[in-house]
Amino acid sequence: QVQLVESGGGLVQAGGSLRLSCSASGITSSSNAMGWYRQAPGKRRDLVAVISSSGTTNYGDSVKGRFTISRDNAKNTVYLQMNSLKPEDTAVYYCTAVRYGLRYWGQGTQVTVSS
């Protein structure tokens, strides 16, 4: 059974930083594509960042240069370092993983950026 548990969300002022963590079980972070999406109220769920099994990364246009995705294979954990946060980054952030063609989601963690 695949489980993804996010942590690290919270309230931060504009210009600040947060680091989100996604702890995976039932799946090996180094062998599967994993990533982060976010969803603001009334909006669709959008790509933030993904990291492939080979380590290739891809970012949404709005976060390029500010956010960095990484993983710790020993801890089976994926991280999202978020710098220079803006109020428009406010959303629920979801960890996701793809295994054997199936996509799994975490429960989400709220990030709120105040102006």
What would your notes on this structure say?
- The protein contains no helices and 11 strands.
- It has strands at 3-7, 10-13, 18-25, 34-39, 45-51, 57-59, 67-72, 77-82, 91-99, 102-105, 109-114.
- The strands form 2 sheets. Strands 2, 4, 5, 6, 9, 10 and 11 form a 7-stranded mixed sheet that branches.
- It is globular and about 40 Å long.
- The mean pLDDT is 95.
Structural class: mainly beta
3D shape: globular
Low-confidence stretches: none
The biggest beta sheet reads: 7 strands, mixed
One letter per element, helices H and strands E, the order comes to EEEEEEEEEEE
Number of helices: 0
Give the proportion of residues in helices.
under 10%
Question: How many strand segments?
Answer: 11
Provide the β-strand percentage band: over 45%
